[in-house]
Amino acid sequence: MEMRRTAGLMTIMKQQGEDTTPKLYYILSALTYLLAMVCSNMALQFVSYPTQVIGKAGKPIPVIILGVLLGNKVYPPRKYVFVFLVVTGVILFMYKDGPPKKPMDAAGQTGFGELLLLLSLTMDGITSAVQERMKGEHNTKSGHMMLNMNYWSVIFSTVAIVASGEVFQFVRFLQRYPATLWQIVTVSIAGAFGQYFIFFTIAEFGPLPCSIITTTRKLFTVLGSIIIFGHSLSTRQWLGTCIVFTGLFLDAVYGKTDRSSKKEVAK
């Protein structure tokens, strides 16, 4: 998957000019990105899927905090309020009523899954902080960022699957279910297109707007399926939807006001 993306980005990278971003930034962002994904997937062994989804819905919070602490980013107080509204609304919308069902192998592991989710969110925050430095210090373009992060991700992933022996399990899986190869290719192509827009958003607008978009898309996906298939929303879900749209609306107004005031100062 990663090699396919890397090969397709060479042309885009050449069109975006010379890249002055230090390799260390790409290595750190690729490593923390992979660790966030690994911790998130491992957490599913100890917590339910809804718990994992709700936990990851809080991604903008570590992004904004570590963006300030490590990424040299400064946000006005109202930005924190808007992000909190969006995250709270998504959590309310995605929350499942009733006690969560933990996986069978989670017995005696109370708190470990939550710790993995916390580590995953921390890695997400560090990734965004490094990307914030790329954008602020070197004006890193989307093509360069996507190419180099996937390049180092290929290296780290290859070492991991060879060292763990999972590469042989993967080959045996394909031999047993050869039809899944085309599904993997399809997911890879769709993921490459999705990554292009994600990195474009990061390079042009910053990691925080991107994390808000990827968080709220979960709400819009579920909301769209509800509308299409005629399902009904609970009072809590309607409340969560209203809170999300309120946060997004206020953030949009805030952003326009902020940009217009900057233009006036420039004049």
From TrEMBL:
<keyword id="KW-0472">Membrane</keyword>
<keyword id="KW-0813">Transport</keyword>
<dbReference type="Pfam" id="PF08449">
    <property type="entry name" value="UAA"/>
</dbReference>
<dbReference type="GO" id="GO:0005460">
    <property type="term" value="F:UDP-glucose transmembrane transporter activity"/>
</dbReference>
<keyword id="KW-0812">Transmembrane</keyword>
<dbReference type="GO" id="GO:0000139">
    <property type="term" value="C:Golgi membrane"/>
</dbReference>
<dbReference type="InterPro" id="IPR013657">
    <property type="entry name" value="SCL35B1-4/HUT1"/>
</dbReference>
<feature type="transmembrane region" description="Helical">
    <location>
        <begin position="24"/>
        <end position="47"/>
    </location>
</feature>
<keyword id="KW-1133">Transmembrane helix</keyword>
<dbReference type="GO" id="GO:0005459">
    <property type="term" value="F:UDP-galactose transmembrane transporter activity"/>
</dbReference>
<feature type="transmembrane region" description="Helical">
    <location>
        <begin position="53"/>
        <end position="72"/>
    </location>
</feature>
<feature type="transmembrane region" description="Helical">
    <location>
        <begin position="180"/>
        <end position="203"/>
    </location>
</feature>
<feature type="transmembrane region" description="Helical">
    <location>
        <begin position="215"/>
        <end position="232"/>
    </location>
</feature>
<feature type="transmembrane region" description="Helical">
    <location>
        <begin position="79"/>
        <end position="95"/>
    </location>
</feature>
<dbReference type="GO" id="GO:0005789">
    <property type="term" value="C:endoplasmic reticulum membrane"/>
</dbReference>
<protein>
    <submittedName>
        <fullName>Solute carrier family 35 member B1 isoform X2</fullName>
    </submittedName>
</protein>
<keyword id="KW-0256">Endoplasmic reticulum</keyword>
<dbReference type="InterPro" id="IPR037185">
    <property type="entry name" value="EmrE-like"/>
</dbReference>
<comment type="similarity">
    <text>Belongs to the nucleotide-sugar transporter family. SLC35B subfamily.</text>
</comment>
<feature type="transmembrane region" description="Helical">
    <location>
        <begin position="151"/>
        <end position="174"/>
    </location>
</feature>
